[in-house]
Structure formats: C-alpha cells, structure tokens
Amino acid sequence: MSALIRVLGFLKPYKRDAVLAVVLLALVVGIDLLEPRLVQRIIDQGVAQGDMQMILGTSIFMIVAAVISALLAVVNTIFSVRVAQKFAADLRRALYNNIQSFSYGNLDNFQTGRLLVRLTSDVNQLQMVVMMTLRMLTRAPLMVIGSISFMLITNAQLATILLILLALTFVFTMVFVTVARPLFLGVQKRLENLNQVLQENLAGIRVVKAFVRRDYENERFDKANSDLMKQSIKVGGLISVLMPLMLLTINLSTVVIVYLGGLQVIAGSFTVGEIMAFNSYLLSTMFPLTFLAMMAGQVSAANASAERVVEILDSNPQVQDKPDAIVLPLIKGRVAFENVHFSYNKDGGEPVLQGINLVAEPGQTVALLGATGSGKSTLVYLIPRFYDVTKGRVSIDGIDVRDVIQDSLRSQIGMSLQESVLFSGTIRENIKYGRHDTDDEEVIAAAKAAQAHEFITSFPEGYNTMIGQRGANLSGGQKQRIAIARALLINPKILILDDSTSSVDVETEAKIQDALRGLMKDRTSFIIAQRISTVLNADKIVVLNSGRIVAEGTHSELMRTSPLYREIYDSQLGGGVGGKE
Amino acid sequence: MARSSSDRESRAPVFRGPPGPMRGRTIEKAKNPRGALVRLLRYLSPFRLRLGIVVALVVISTLLSLIGPLLMGTAIDSFIATRDAEGLLRIALLMVAVYVLGALASMCSGWVMVSTAQRALRSLRKELFEHIQTLPLGFFDKRPTGELMSRLTNDIDAINIALTQNVTQLIGSVLHSIGILVMMFRLNLLLALGSLAVFPVMAGLTALISKRTRAGFRNLQMNMGRLNANMEENVSGERVVIAFGQRKAALESFDEINYAVRDSATQAISYALLMPPLMGILSNVAIAVVAGLGGWLVLNGLATIGTIATFITYSRQFAQPLRMISDIYNNVQSALAGSERIFEVIDEKPEYQDIPDAKPLERIKGEIVFDHVDFEYVPDIPVLRDVSFHAKPGQMIALVGPTGAGKTTIVNVFSRFYDTKNGRITIDGRDISTINKDVLRKQLGVVLQDVMLFSGTVLDNIRYGRLDATDEECVEAAKLANADAFITRLPKGYMTELSERGSNLSQGQRQLLSIARAILAEPSILILDEATSSVDTRTEKTIQDALLRLMKGRTSFVIAHRLSTIRNADQILVINEGRIIERGTHKELLQQKGFYHNLYMSQFKGKNNDEEILPELESSDYITGDERPNQEKITP
Question: Which of A39, A101, A571 is opposite residue B312, by nearest beta carbon?
Fold first, then answer.
C-alpha cells in the first residue's frame, strides 16, 4: 500500500476540497439515515394516533430534508470530481515531465508501450479510486455504521440476527470477488490471444495468401475464438448465478424482519413502523457492504497502478547537467574520443565500446562501418551525450561534453537517427522541428539538399501536407529524407547520419550524397551506413568490430591494409549472389 | 434513502471493469438500425427456442419480484394487525418461496442468455474472420489493420454487451416498471397518483442532464484523443525530442492539452454524476409523499398501513429500471452501429471465384510469359502498360527501377492478387486466369521484404511453409537457409518462442527464417522482394548464399535492390512508369548506356576517382560465391 499512499500525496494541494467533500458526504449520510425514522414516526405516531398535523409536518420535513441532502450530494460530487481530475492532471504531468527528462539509458529500460500504459490506464485507475473514495468509499462505512446503530438501538435482538445475515453476505461477496477475479483475467487473456491471432493475420495477410494458409488460419482463429467463448460463458454463468443469489439474501432478510418483527408486534414489543424502518436500514446496509467488498479488488488494482507510476517517478535521468555546467560556445567541430569505454550497464555489464581513440577534425567526414552490434550507433550517441561514457572522455573543441548544458550541446549537432520519427503536423513544421525561427527559403533549401523537395512539392498541399501519426502516409524513404532535412535545417557544426538513407533507393541516395557533399564541407560529419557505396568518399573510414576500432583510413588505404574492409567491399560491390560462372 | 443511487454504481466496478466516465460515451447511431437489427437477429435465430425460454424466465422472475412487496403489505395488514402468528408464518414461508423461485428463474434466464449470446457471438466472429480471409488484397490496401481490428474487437464487444446484459435487462426493466404501475394503481389510485407525481419532473431532469452529459463527453473524448496522440508521439519519439533539445516545447504542448482534458473531464463527469443524487432526491420525495398522503388516507379509512409499506418498496424500485432504460438504449444503439460496420465487411465480395472446369495444375516447369499486360489499381491510372516478357524455366529475372515504377505490381498480378486489365499471363503455356488462385499460389514461393512471422516457436514459423513437414524437414530447410546456426544459438533452439512478430530476432535472422520457410514449401516458381534496408555485411552474405540455393533450378523473379543480385540475373527488366524500358543482361544493358547505365553509375557518381573503382568492379567478378574467403580467417 505504500506506493498508493505516496501517489495519493498528489492530493495535498487539494486537501481542503477533499475534506470538504467528505464532510458534505457525512452530512448527506446523516440526513439519509434520518428518513426511515421519519416514516416510522408517521406510521406509529401520526397514523396510530390520528394526528394529521404531525403526518403533514413530518412529511414536509422529509421533503425538505431530501432536497437538502440532494443539494449537498451535488456539491459533494462537484468537489470530488474536481479534486480527482486535478489530481489526475497533476499526476500525469509529473509523469510526463519525468519521462521527458529521461535520457536514452532510461528509455532503454522502459518500453514506449509500457510508459504509455502508465500515463493513461494507470493514471486513470488511480483517478477512479480517488473519485470513488470521495463519493462512495467514505459513504459506505458511515452508512453501514449508522444503520446498524439505529437497528441496535431500536431492537437489539432482531438487529443481532440481521447482523449475522449481513456478515454472511459480506463474506459471500468477498469470496465471489476473489473467485471471479482470476476468471475475469482469464477472459481478458483469451481476448488478447484472439486479438493477437487477428493482428498477426491481418498484418501478414500477404504471406497468408501467398502460402495459401486460409484453412490453417481459420483453424487458429476458431480455436482462440472457442476458448474465449468457453471462458466467457463460465464468467457470465457465475455472474448470472451470483447476482440473483445476492439479491435473494437481501430479500430473505426482509422476510426475517417481517416475520420476527411481526411476532414481536403481536407480542406488543415492536411496532409496524419499526418493521418498515428496519427494512429500510437493512437495505441501506446491504448495498454499501457489497460495495465495500468489491472495492477491495479495486484498491489492490490501484496499488499495482501506483507501484508502476512510482517506478517512473523514482527513475532519475541517467544523464544530468552538472550544477556548474556551462553553455557550449560556438564550436568549430573537432570531435575527439579519448580512450573511451562504454557499457549500457553501469555496474560492469558487457562492454559495448572499448578503448576508442578517434579524432575528427573540423569539416572532416568520418564513416563508420561494422556489423550490427559492433557499436557504431553507440559511438556516435556519445557525442550529443545521449549516454555518458563509462571510462575516458568525449570532447568537442577540447571541451568535455559532460561539462556543458545538454541542450546547448545538442543545438549544435544535427542528427538523423536510424528510425526516422516524425511528428503529426505539416511537413514544414516537421522540418522546422529543431529550429522554429527559420523562413521558408531555408526550409526549402534543406529539403532540396535532402532530395525531399521534389516529392514534397508533388503533394497537392506541398509543404503544408499534414503528416499522419508518425508519418503513416509517407514511405520509409520519404520519412528518412524529411528527417535529414530536419537535421540540416539547424545548420549544425556536427552532423550525424545514423543509417539514415537505408530505405531510400540507390539512385536517390546518390543524389542525397551529392547534395550533402557540398553541405558537409564545413561540418564535421559522422556517417553510419550499411551500403559501402555511401561511405567511399569519406575522409576517414572507421571499421568497428565488437566495440573496437579495427581499421581506420581512406578507402584506398583500407583496400590495401584491411582484409575485413576488403571483404565487406567485395560482398557488396563485387561478385555477390549470382556467382554462376 | 440513498439506496437507489448507490446500488447501481456499486455493482459497476467488478462486473463491467472500471465504470464508464473516462471511457467516453459517444453514442453512435446506425444508418439503418432496423436493417441491422433484422440481420443481427438472424444470427440468433438458431437459438429461437433458448431465447423463448429466456423471455419466459425473465417474465416469471419479474412477476415474482413484484409479488414480494405485495405479500409484505398483506402480512402487515392481514396477520400482524390481526395478531395471527400462524398466518404470519404461512405468509413468511410463502414470501421465502416466492423470492427463492424468483432467484432461480433469474439465474436460469441469465445463464441461458449468456451461453446463447456467447455462441452467437462466436459464430459471428468466425464468419467475419473467415470472410476476411477470402477478401482480395485490394480490400486490405484500403483499410489500415487497426481499423479492421476494431471491427473484430470493439464492434463485436458492443454487440456482446448489448446481447448478454441488455436484452434481459431491457425485458426485465420494462416489465418491472409496467408491473409496478399496474400494481400501484390496482392497490390504491390516489396513492399511486401521489407517488408518481414526481416522475415527470424526473424524466425532464434526466433528459436535460443527459443532453449536457453527452455534449460534455463528446468534448472530453476529443480532448482525450488529442492528449493520447500527444503522449504517444512524444513518448515514442522521445529520442528525437532529446536529440533536438525540444523537451520544453514538448512539455508546453502537453500542458495545454492536459489542462484541457482536466477541465472538460471535470465538466462532463460532474454532469454524469449529478444523476444519482437527483434521482435519489426524487425517490425520497416520493416516499415522503407516500408516507404523508398514505397516513392521511389511512386516517380516513381509504388505505391500510400495509399498503403504505408496499408502496414505499415500489417507489424505490420504480426509478431504477427507468434509469437503466436510457443506458440500455444507448448500448443497443452502438451495438447496431457496430453490427452495421461488421455487415459491411461481410458484404465485401471475396476474391475466390472458382473456375468450374479448372483443370488441376500439373508439375510445372516454370516457363512464364507476360503477353501485353495492362493493369490499373484505380480506373484510368495505369500502373502497368503493355508489359511483355518471356521467362524460361530456371531463369532469374531481376526487376529493377525506381520506387513506384511497378515492380511489385508485376509480381502481384502474377500471383493473382489482382487481375490484369488487358493481356494475359501464362505458365507453361496455360493462362493463369484458368487456374484456381489457391492452386496457383501453392506453386509460388514468396520471400517478402517485410518478413512476417507469427507468434509461436521458430519451428512453427518455418513449418508455415508446408504444414505437413516433419521436424527433420524443417531443420533441413533451416540448414539450407543458413538459419540453423543462429537458431541453435537461441536459448531454446528451434523451440524458442518468438515474441511479438519476431521482434526478438534481428532483421537478418528474420529474413533467413522466411527463406527457410520458402525452401520448405518447395515452390516451382520463386518471388523475391529484396529488402532495401540493409543488414550488416556478414548476415547479408549469409542471406545471399541461402537465396542462391533457393533459386537453383527455379524460375525466379527478384525485385532487386542490390547490384550483386542484379549482375547475376539472366534477364534484367528495367521498369519505369509501368513500362519495361530496357531489358537484357547486366553487360548488355551497360553497353546500351541508357537508363540502367545511369542507375548503375549513380551509385558511384561523385566519387572523385571513378576510374580507380570501376575497373576494379569489373574485375572483381573472379570471386565466386564458393571461393569467397572464409569468415573466420579474416576476423581479427
């Protein structure tokens, strides 16, 4: 529960409103508890003694009380909802803020999907509990205690018998909730199975069709479908048996009241009005009681949510500005790696980079080659300080990247990452993402250099074309070109292209290369590519293997000195697949 | 009395998952509700008898629940008032019997309804899924996967809720309300009129508030949509946000939307939650009226105390079904809208129209002829124009050209994913339009760019190529595909479960699996869409080796992106804007100095020392696949 309590700390600014809501609720309960008493008065005193004055007076009083209680309840609702929504908004903001402060290392630990679930479902779950607590959860115990006390005062003997029935109902509900929960989860799980079959089938429909696997797929679906049906029938059956049972216990309690109460009336120790009041109190106990039993599950779910939320709140960004960090002055672009070691796991995990020494002079183009997992991306990620080195240092113009404010560092580095993520908005807005204060001319120039201008202007809306979520309406190559334009627009001194033309066809890639060549002249550039043709022109080609630099030099140098380089070269531009002499 | 306001909400959390508010409640309406209803009922018609039983049971349990309060009144008037202890026992036992029978009837009706509805839903889902399997690719091009998913999940779920919960509730509620009315008026006309006086007010309030609530929720849902989109985007694009130093901007845009959600949620949910207390007040007022007016009537000999007791119980019960009816109405509306969308899919024409006198396809040699083929996806926008070529058995045909030129379309019309507009395509001299699609596709082996893996083990995924293959055959295929090496290194080897569509495998590994799958299928003709996004060199070589083995002796079409593949093709078809503009072998095409030559050169254009590289390329032919140096020797 500690996680839940901590998250509920977000209610602090709204303590006054929350307390007010609870106080109002208590008043409502008080008035509501009075009502059966008043009915009883009308019957036992008014009717029995023929006192019309009192009947009229009491019933008017009841109406007034009902109106007041309803008004109080309305105010309570408004306060509760307001508090809960403010709580949710604050919590969401705190989470979002923390996620935004994450560094790449933190993001590696959380998957996007999981982060989003926490921001949406978990926050929602918690908001729900806050609202329920303010509106119902405090009402239920008050109602139960009040009703029981009234019953005990009026007729202790009958009340005791009813208490036993009430206790049974409570236990019964608790058992039901515990039994039902796994069954419900079972339905959820089978539904997920079904959805997975469906998702895979739809996403892979070409393969399904190409391999003529219709019958097989139908069978797979049918199985998941039948499983879901069986479980749903089980759960539905349980509910349809238990709901009437619960209602039955309440109704039977009524019979007990009428019978035992009736006997006491006959004996002269009880009144008809009291029977009716008892019946009312019974009902106002029974329902809150079952509600409480069910809330137990809700609260434990909320605690699980709270734990997930706290996990985010407690994650500190792995890369942080030093307290005395300076703003990086305008750089020339000399990047130096000095004996850099790096591993993703700070406590001595597998080393990803080992003993890297590499200098890129201002204006040089450095190309990185190597197998997947050889550490190319990691190496360039150290320049904008997406991660901190484990040992050694990375410096720009001699300044350690750890000594400067992150944003000032990154504002001078243009990057196009492996996966070109775009944002919803127009193409223009996306290109201007890194620098808002630019005019259209610069945007167009950047797009031209990235070979994006042509296809952008072929759209009816040109630069104003709206990009669907994450660029759904663009091809992979188009997205990559917009991402390159975005990186170029900030006019960076250091340019990093991480495999950023992989989805572009060869011809277009060559054009991009051409255009970039001019642009790279006074920038230090780092290029990661799989196609060797992309890197032939680099001032320096660095071949990485298992986190170490195994060869370094120009193309012609490496062709002579590095067998690994030559192998890569031959496999792509040499004999290749056919080889059928 | 707060009971009527609390019990419905108190049931909500467990039985329906978290209660509604934040889930949003836009109520959609079907375009033709009656048509949808009639068709939906057709799915229930096999269960007519069961449904008849359900209705009968609901009627019984409702009637019994109406009798309960009546008996209570009788107990007070006829036995307690007359001090008849024996009679009281009798009527108490009668009450027990009535309540128990009512509970039994309601249990049975619920159970029969649930099992019937679930069966009907299963057959609806089944029909929908099986129908989707028969739809042509064009159908899927038009609709994103997510949209189809929602048909099969959300829309079916809407029907589910309406069927399993609402049908019985609806019958029960209506009957209950009518029954109470009848009972009240029969018992005491004046008291009935008095206690019902407040209900018109209640109905008006309900209408007013639900209108506000709906508007509020529409607004909330819009803001929620914006918020979710914003979070989705900035959290999944977080790395870019960081890279461009845009954290502050991201937070600002979030703040604005977050507060909009907060405010609209406060408004919408407040309105929604106004209902219970207002309903509570009205039933409390009704009780006050019953007590006051009833007392006066008793004094004047026009009613009994038992009647008052009965009326109080009825007044409490009356409001509830009424409130439920509006909820139920909305649920039924969205169920109908959902089923309309489902029927839309079911009404789509399937691609399979079996040719009545189709002869079975003999073992084919793989001679393929395209004879003046034209094709368009959308009328008047030609995608293929007058495409003709002749592939001899065993040849490798490379399709080369810029994106959007029509390479994939050639392969698509050949697989009969789409039918040609003009011209014909033959295999071994036989027109493919006279071959059943399934029969044709069984002859084709496909390795697509975007490798599609399914959840299940590695072995299952290979076996997808031929379902009756033994484990040994699968392993053999994996070996031929060069996939065995990495598979055996996986924690559980061939039995390793693939996570979400193979996300625990690298791109290259997934391609190898898909090659193994194609090898296992033993196709006569091979279609290969080379991946554009590159894998690392080592893996690439492994893949190319495997492909080479796969292509041996088979006619193959390769949508080629790699020079090494293209150079070895028997025929290169250069495609641009839907036409074959050049054809020939690599050498021939280079000599033509045309489009292909430019395409080829563009890879090296700008390289300062062209002369140095090009001759080298020409001479590097000496390295053949088999002679290439072993990897281990080179690894430093």
Answer: A39
